[in-house]
Amino acid sequence: MKNHLSIHLPTWLQKFEDSIKYPLIDIEDRMSLVIKLSSLNILEQTGGPFGAAVFEIDSGLLISVGVNLVVKSGYSLAHAEMVALALSQERLGTYDLGKSEFPQHELVTSCEPCAMCFGSIPWSGVSRVICGARDEDARAIGFDEGPKLKDWASALESRGITVITDVKRQEACNVLNRYKENGGKLYNSRQDQ
User: Fold this and answer.
1) Is residue 50 classed as helix, strand or coil in its secondary structure?
2) How far is CA 71 from CA 6, 8, 53, 183, in A?
3) pTM
4) Do the beta carbons of residue 164 and residue 27 sit within 8 Å?
5) Would you name the residues annotated as active-site residues?
6) Which of 135, 151, 175, 189 gives the lowest tally of CB atoms within 10 Å of its CB?
7) Where are the beta strands (DSSP E) in the chain?
C-alpha cells in the first residue's frame, strides 16, 4: 500500500512557467495565460481543456500554474484549479493563502469552477476568483460540472471573495470547442466512453 499521493506535472509546464514575462498586471493578461495553458494541455495531449493560475493580486506575481490532469494522473481531483492551488500552497508553505502576512492572492481559471473546485476556493484563502468560460459552456461540450449552487458567485462574495466572470469568455470557449471537435475525452464519472 502506498503512503503518498503524487501527481506528475507535464514536462512542458515548467518551461511555460519559466517563459512568462512579468508583471502581469491586467486581468486580461492573466486570463490569456490560463487560456494558453488550457490550449497547450490539449496540444501536448497531457489533459483536458482547462488551465488555472494563482497570482498575487496587486503585484501580478505568478505563484503557480495548473492544468487538468485527471486522465493522465488517474485522480478525479486533478482539476486545473486544484493543481494550481496545491502548487501555490506547497510553494508558499501553507494551506492558507489568505494569511495576514501574505499579499492577497487570486485564482484565475479558464472556466468557472465545477462543484469540487468551488468547494475548495473558500478554504484556499484566495480573495479573488477570475473566470473565462462559464459552467454552461463546459456542460455544452459534455462535461459534468456537478451540483453547484446556482448563485455560486454570490456565495463566495458573501465570504469576502470577489468574483469576476466572462473575462475573455469567447477565447476560453474556443479552447473547449476545439477539444470537443478534436475528439477529446470527456471524463465524467460512470459515463460510458
Assistant:
1) coil
2) 14, 12, 20, 14
3) 0.94
4) yes
5) 81
6) 189
7) 51-56, 62-67, 105-111, 128-133, 162-164
